[in-house]
Amino acid sequence: MSPEDDICFYDPSFYPTEETALEYFRNSPFYDKQCNNEILRMQMQYNANMKININERLKEMVGVEYSFRENISNIFIIQKSYRKDNEKTILLDLYYIMNGIVYKAPTDKSIFTSRFINSVASLNKALDIYNDRITLFDEINVKKDDEEFNEILKILADYKLR
């Protein structure tokens, strides 16, 4: 887990729209101030005559860049990628803005890990309950010399996750 996973950002003075989502994201701690977007912004800031299409200009640069990916029911998706050339980019991270709050999107690995841990915990709980019932059943109905049943209990104990 990275430190960014536990951070969110909210600016009460600026509510993002589809047109301003990237600008809003720029104020968040997730934004890398040395990205290509910032380099172009600084160039444009001091050159009033510079009229460029930022997306076209970003394609000519190599390095980290941010782009507005999509708007899904007022949830704005921001993509962080590394551009190798004008055609090839590598996705680094995804962020989303929901109700004016910027979050880092979870990775596939973190989602899988979380779900796997939850399923193992549930399986462990189920085995505890099963083991309690088998022990109760064993004490009431099963004779100590029932080898087949005792073998099953040993196998189940081997699968117990602790």
TrEMBL record:
GO MF annotations in UniProt: transcription coregulator activity
Record-level GO BP terms: regulation of transcription by RNA polymerase II
Superkingdom to which the source organism belongs: Eukaryota
Location in the cell: Nucleus
Assembly: Component of the Mediator complex.
Family: Belongs to the Mediator complex subunit 6 family.
Protein name, entry field: Mediator of RNA polymerase II transcription subunit 6
Species for this entry: Anncaliia algerae PRA339
Gene encoding the protein: MED6
